[in-house]
């Protein structure tokens, strides 16, 4: 059946292993040791700051660093010792004209009609001003604010400057096709439908969530933070891979401890991601159903232990396997030694090692019928899937070779289970000696805690370096309306507060893991000051030192400098997601930046207030022509 054909290929492509540790640097400096001279004196009076704030500020730079012989040691920083309102520190890397540009850009973003019609305005401006003038205007405004440059070379000065002020880079090639909504929908329908489904209405078998939905074919709708790829053909995917490879090279070349970001939807036909996601979710749901049968519902996923004896009885009752047949499934090397099977054991059944084709039938809860997990792939589809996995493998090897960490971005929930699982497979291969591959967990998801804890537990059990980026999630609006319209459960937490709780709960779990096992790593990718403060507080309580580089912080270029730079100056590993690409090709990205910085957003208002405060401070202290030296 289809899956017995699928998994050996998946496993094979992913198990082409790279050399173990070559090209790896153990030292890192990008975001750790600020090498700033700064034209203004460090001890100059901070206008508007209290003495206490000032002491904290200096404390974050000086007192925390104790030099003993050749070693630089750092204490965890008390949460309140970094002052995110200290504008002098936050904007030390910027000349005043850049602050003014930020202020103008953020002010423009606060004008709703401008933001609502930004695409029409940009198109009209292109026509009126002509290409060259339009590009020049963009570079002086929006593009200059949010994008680092056109290519790997032009972004280097900015990367160097940020690095000198303690802020590293996650390179993020941000070119997007400028498709119309109709074109995007057409491409999506085509690339998410399997041949078998076209022929005999195989859709009927797929759950609604994992069927392509024409009304939501344009995945860009309602997304504020992330760029979107649409599948054209295999050559285009190869082209994306080449771009990511250049990005990794550039990360390796421009800083000593860089990251690159990739999106798996750029690397292959999304139909595979849809179908594989459905398989994984059905499989997990089946586990929970069996747990409920054993009276174990309501527990966190990693806490559930199924009793093998009862499990075999259930499988026999459901007609999936006789007790004799299933006996061999649960007596493998790691399975069932304790007489129980947990979620990780259960998940491990779904790969080539077991080749249990019958297990790939699961009961449909509504109809009570057994259904195959996956419809059959054609030879061409099989090849497409294999090529996608090979592209991932090529990228993993290049990252390992260059000592660059690879962030795999999280996307929509109908792709994400597959994206996360494939990323995990890469981690198993490439994270043996150090964290090279980072997975992303979206904490707006109701299931975020189960996802994080299951993967941490697996990394512990298999002894590889867990690497995670924690985000709240960029697709909320789209996810909610798709769920409501198509008719399945909303995957998103009901309120913002619940998402915050989830974020802190997941983060706390990983921080505890770091405390006990220094192999875990996490990037707190958020613009939320409370979340950053929460992280600092917990690091302090748990004795996690900034220079251990286990906890990173991440913000987007052009946003929240008041968080990034004080953290960097205090010696915390902090990174900017640094988008780059030609002006015309990053316009869709810029359009979303404008939306995220709308005046109604609390963060944007605070940023404008701080920028204004710093410009006034410079004016009053005669530093209007300040220019950073590094
Ligand atoms: C470095 C970096 C990398 C990123 N990478 C990714 C990625 O790979 N994938 C991805 O999906 N996103 C990614 N994002 C975007 C991220 O998910 C958020 O959309 C964005 O950062 C805003 O969240 P916040 O924590 O910064 O700020 P906040 O303003 O505190 O949070 C806003 C977020 O809270 C959630 N939220 C808001 N209202 C509600 C509500 N009513 N109910 C439930 N939840 C709600 C939403 O997720 C919303 O985006 C990334 C962000 C950064 C900074």
From TrEMBL:
The protein's Enzyme Commission number: 1.5.5.2
Short name of one Pfam family: Pro_dh
GO biological processes: L-proline catabolic process to L-glutamate
GO molecular function ontology, one term from the record: proline dehydrogenase activity
Transmembrane region(s): none
Span of domain Proline dehydrogenase: 161-600
Pathway annotation: Amino-acid degradation; L-proline degradation into L-glutamate; L-glutamate from L-proline: step 1/2
Cellular component aspect of the GO annotation: mitochondrial matrix
Essential cofactor(s): FAD
Catalytic function, reaction form: L-proline + a quinone = (S)-1-pyrroline-5-carboxylate + a quinol + H(+)
Keywords for the protein's UniProt record, in alphabetical order: Acetylation, FAD, Flavoprotein, Mitochondrion, Oxidoreductase, Proline metabolism, Transit peptide
Places the protein is found: Mitochondrion matrix
Superkingdom: Eukaryota
Family: Belongs to the proline oxidase family.
Biological role stated in the UniProt entry: Converts proline to delta-1-pyrroline-5-carboxylate.
Protein name in the entry: Proline dehydrogenase
Originating species: Pelobates cultripes
Taxon lineage: Eukaryota, Metazoa, Chordata, Craniata, Vertebrata
């Amino acid at each position: 059946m289809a899956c017995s054909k699928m998994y050996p290929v998946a496993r094979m492509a992913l198990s082409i292993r790279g050399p173990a540790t070559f090209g790896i640097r153990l030292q890192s400096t990008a975001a750790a040791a600020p090498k700033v001279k700064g034209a203004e004196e460090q001890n100059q009076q901070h206008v508007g700051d209290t003495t206490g704030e000032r002491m904290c500020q200096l404390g974050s730079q000086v007192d925390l660093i104790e030099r003993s012989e050749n070693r630089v040691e750092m204490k965890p920083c008390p949460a309140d010792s970094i002052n995110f309102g200290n504008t002098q520190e936050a904007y030390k890397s910027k000349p005043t004209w850049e602050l003014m540009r930020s202020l103008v850009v953020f002010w423009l973003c606060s004008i709703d009609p401008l933001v609502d019609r930004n695409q029409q305005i940009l198109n009209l401006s292109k026509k009126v001003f002509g290409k060259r003038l339009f590009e020049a205007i963009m570079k002086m405004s929006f593009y200059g604010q949010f994008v680092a440059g056109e290519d790997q070379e032009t972004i280097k000065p900015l990367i160097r400057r940020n690095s000198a002020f303690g802020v590293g880079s996650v390179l993020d090639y941000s070119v997007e096709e400028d498709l119309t909504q109709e074109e995007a929908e057409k491409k999506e329908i085509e690339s998410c439908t399997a041949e078998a489904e076209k022929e005999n209405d195989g859709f009927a078998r797929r759950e609604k969530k994992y069927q392509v939905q024409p009304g939501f074919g344009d995945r860009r709708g309602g997304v504020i933070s992330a760029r979107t790829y649409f599948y054209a053909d295999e050559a285009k995917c190869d082209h994306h891979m080449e771009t990511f490879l250049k990005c990794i090279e550039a990360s390796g070349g421009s800083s000593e401890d860089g990251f690159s970001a990739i999106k798996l939807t750029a690397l292959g036909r999304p139909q595979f991601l849809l179908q594989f996601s459905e398989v994984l979710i059905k499989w997990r749901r089946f586990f929970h159903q069996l747990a409920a049968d054993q009276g174990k519902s309501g527990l966190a996923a990693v806490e559930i232990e199924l009793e093998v004896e009862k499990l075999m009885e259930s499988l026999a009752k459901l007609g999936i396997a006789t007790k004799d047949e299933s006996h061999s499934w649960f007596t493998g090397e790691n399975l069932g030694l304790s007489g129980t099977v947990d979620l990780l054991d259960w998940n491990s059944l779904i790969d080539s090692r077991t080749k249990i084709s019958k297990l790939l039938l699961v009961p449909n809860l509504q109809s009570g019928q057994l259904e195959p997990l996956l419809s059959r792939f054609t030879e061409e589809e099989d090849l497409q899937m294999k090529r996608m996995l090979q592209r991932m493998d090529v990228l993993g090897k290049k990252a390992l070779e260059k000592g660059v960490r690879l962030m795999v971005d999280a996307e929509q929930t109908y792709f994400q289970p597959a994206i996360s699982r494939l990323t995990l497979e890469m981690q198993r291969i490439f994270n043996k000696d150090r964290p090279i591959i980072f997975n992303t967990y979206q904490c707006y998801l109701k299931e975020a805690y189960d996802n994080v804890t299951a993967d941490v537990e697996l990394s512990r059990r298999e002894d590889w370096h867990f690497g995670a980026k924690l985000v709240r999630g960029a697709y909320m609006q789209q996810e909610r309306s798709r769920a409501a319209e198509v008719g399945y459960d909303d995957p998103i937490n009901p309120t913002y507060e619940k998402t915050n709780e989830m974020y802190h709960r997941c983060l706390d779990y990983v921080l505890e893991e770091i405390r006990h096992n220094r192999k875990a790593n996490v990037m707190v990718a958020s613009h939320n000051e409370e979340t950053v403060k929460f992280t600092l507080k917990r690091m302090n309580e748990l004795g996690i030192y900034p220079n251990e580089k286990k906890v990173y912080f991440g913000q987007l270029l052009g946003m929240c400098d008041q968080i990034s730079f004080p953290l960097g100056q205090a010696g915390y590993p902090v990174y900017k997601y640094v988008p780059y690409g030609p002006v015309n090709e990053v316009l869709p990205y810029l359009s979303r930046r404008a939306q995220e910085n709308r005046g109604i957003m609390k963060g944007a208002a605070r940023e404008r207030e701080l920028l204004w405060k710093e410009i006034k401070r410079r004016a009053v202290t005669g530093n209007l022509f300040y220019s950073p030296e590094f």
